[in-house]
Amino acid sequence: MPNIFQESFIYDNKIVKYRFYEGLYQARYRKNGYNIEVASKDFDSMKCKFMKCIINKPQPEVHQAVNKNSNTGKDPLFADYALEWLEIKEKTTKASTFKEYKRSFDTNLKPKFGNMKLSEISRNSIQDYLFEFVNSGKFRTAEKLKLELNCIFDMAVDDFQILSPMSKIILPFYESKKGIAFSKEEEQKLIDYCIKRNNDVSSALLVLIYFGLRQSELPSLKIIDGKFLECETSKERMGRNIVLRRIPFTPVLKRVLKYIDFEKAKNVNIFKLRSAFKRLFPAHHPHELRYTFITRCKECGVNHEVVMLWDGHSFESDVKTTAVDRGYTDYSEDYILQEAEKVNYIL
């Protein structure tokens, strides 16, 4: 593939190269029996076209070689081959995402399979290993490890023409627990706690609940004209432009503004924050402060599309507008501040 295809994204365990050239995002994938080329004026549409091509094209058959070592003369250790895959992930994913892949590999996969050759790892050994986590109630960990193993062996199939031991791996259905917004009684409890403490953790908690930030976005916060909080959206993928969003000061926020030190909130220790939060609300997760902000804004009648701009979501199924409407609508500052005034509820 020409070097001009330098950026990458991953779909269905496939590392897809793309470029932006002559006003078009262009992607190309020529591996494992696929020969796909798509292009579009925006990245998301291009990726959607690629996904449709994968879905509509039957999965190419992969035949197991008579001798697994005949193609390359190699049968590497799982740990060595996985490190090659991790090197690719480091260049194609955000630092935080790569860090989690590396942690999972070092903590779980390397101790279990590291000294085994790829050809020695059977479906049964992987299935039994994942069921150990399932039986311990660690469903999410099992799912993450399955995904990581899928990616590693998908690449090995291409390199060594072997059957992946992941092809028949199954896990029991598990529905992730969905967060819930705070009740107003819980919100009042949080405010009372923050007023009493008045420190870096309390400042950060008030920012999270009244601006809807993710914890990872706190270090990027900035106050603009005493009217808006600006932050970098942390969910953007590697290779994409940094997306800044502005959330206006609302009436409910202004009532507790004197208890917020934004500089302290910006530099809070996240582990300290989580620890304090769990002691106060053991049945909740800090991310539910973001749920609470979004819920309150909608309950107060704020334009759903505006809420979407504030919370940094690129799409919400209940926002009844087209992508063109969202892409070409540029709300004035006066309108944004007018919508913010609606967030004026009583606890």
Keywords:
14 helices; DNA polymerase, domain 1; four-stranded antiparallel β-sheet; 47% helix; hpI Integrase, Chain A; globular; three-stranded antiparallel β-sheet; alpha+beta; 347 residues
Describe this structure in words.
- With 347 residues, the protein is of the alpha+beta class.
- It folds into three domains: 7-56; 78-160, DNA polymerase, domain 1, CATH 1.10.150; 184-340, Intergrase catalytic core (hpI Integrase, Chain A, Orthogonal Bundle), CATH 1.10.443.
- It contains 14 helices and seven strands.
- The longest helix has 22 residues, at 139-160.
- It is globular and about 65 Å long.
Number of domains: 3
What is the chains' assembly state? single chain
Q: What is the tally of beta strands?
A: 7
Global outline: globular
Helix content: 40-55%
Report Rg.
24 Å
CATH topology of the largest domain: hpI Integrase, Chain A
* DSSP helical segment count: 14
In brief, what are we looking at here?
With 347 residues, the protein is α+β, with helices and mostly antiparallel strands. The chain has helices at 43-56, 78-92, 95-113, 123-135, 139-160, 184-197, 200-211, 251-255, 262-266, 270-280, 288-299, 304-311, 323-328, 333-340, and strands spanning 7-11, 14-21, 24-29, 36-40, 222-224, 228-232, 244-248. A hairpin with a 2-residue loop joins strand 2 and strand 3 (24-29).
